[in-house]
Amino acid sequence: EKPMERADGIDVLINRIHCADAASALSSWPSQWIDAIVTSPPYFQQRNYDSDFQLGQENSPDEYVCKLKRVFREAKRVLRNNGTFWMVLGDKYHRGRLLGMPWRVALALQDDGWVLRSDIIWHKPNPMPEAVNNRCVKSHEYIFMFTKKKQYYFDADALRTNDVRKSDVWFLKTASLKEAHFAVFPEELPALCIKAGSKEGDLVLDPFMGAGTTALVAQKLGRKWVG
User: Fold this and answer.
1) Residue 202: strand, helix, or coil
2) Are strands 224-226 and 203-205 parallel, antiparallel or unpaired?
3) What is the Rg, in whole angstroms, of the alpha carbon atoms belonging to the chain?
């Protein structure tokens, strides 16, 4: 399918937050006009946002994975063929069992046509305290990097920092927000993804905008954004 040029009808979507169901909004947008996707979907049964339309409060891991597949199937369509998709996702314990949610989602997306290029460990030097004495305290989350094709835009120089050193373990402290959004990732995290996966002037999508960190960082880095 021919990539969509940014002409009339596209500009009205750019640099704006669209308050809508992610899958439905994406399905109404044209194909191949996003350069990079950087996002962190609501984690499975982690936060209740008190909405009938929320994602994350499904009754089973399978139902949660199916909903995410629907969103990211549309995200794949709007992404340019040389684009990258970066997803931050944490795990969940249920009745003493670690569910392996990040990998359930990653493998489901791989089966759905995404090319899984990298699994990155986000190591947190300041993890949330846990009252446990029968297992290790969780101090990491996953960042998965997906593409549509074998050839794609990637700036390896962007990952040559003291905290990353071009490796697949990123040492980044967690962030907090006075406005009481409970799941904010640090600005350094989307900044690395955006710089590695896009050029200045490119367009970055976050289908789960949350506190707006991805948009804020994209704008600081000279990119356009949509959420």
Assistant:
1) coil
2) parallel
3) 17
End-to-end CA distance of the chain: 23
| DSSP type of residue 93 | E
Is 219:211 a contact under the CB 8 Å cutoff?
no
Which tokens go with 95?
């009745």
Rounded Cα distance, 123 and 169, in Å:
7
Sequential pLDDT tens for the chain (227 residues): 444 444 446 888 999 999 999 999 999 999 999 999 999 999 998 878 887 778 888 999 999 999 999 999 999 999 999 999 999 999 999 998 999 999 999 999 999 999 999 999 999 888 777 888 889 888 899 999 999 999 999 999 999 887 777 899 999 988 765 554 455 789 999 999 999 999 999 999 999 998 899 999 999 999 999 99
Q: pTM (2 decimals)?
A: 0.90
Tokens (6 digits) for 70: 């629907």
**140 contacts 90 by C-beta, under 8 angstroms:** no
> Per DSSP, which regions of the chain are E strands?
34-39, 79-89, 93-94, 97-98, 115-123, 140-147, 169-171, 203-205, 224-226
Distance (Å, whole) CA 51 – CA 6: 34
Q: Distance (Å, rounded) from C-alpha 23 to C-alpha 136? A: 36
H or E element, residue 217: helix 213-220
> Residue 73 and residue 69: Cα distance in Å, rounded?
6
